[in-house]
Design a protein that fits this description.
Helix content is about 95%, strand content about 0%. With about 60 residues, the protein is an all-alpha fold.
């Protein structure tokens, strides 16, 4: 094996490792944003339900 072959193999391993970390970060960010959207929708529903309940009793 020549030196360039070793550097190529190390480069491929480093590229796969970096890609793995980036993909994991992107997917966790997407999951976080999805949860945030769901929480916002549920909060809006609860807000309107509470507003309707208190406006009837007042």
């Amino acid at each position: 094996m020549t030196k360039s072959t070793i550097w190529t193999i190390l480069g491929v391993i480093a590229a796969v490792f970096i890609a793995w970390i980036l993909v994991e970060f992107v997917f966790s960010a997407i999951v976080f944003l999805f949860k945030l959207v769901i929480v916002a929708v549920v909060a809006l529903v609860v807000f309107f339900v509470l507003r309707a309940a208190f406006s009837r009793s007042a």
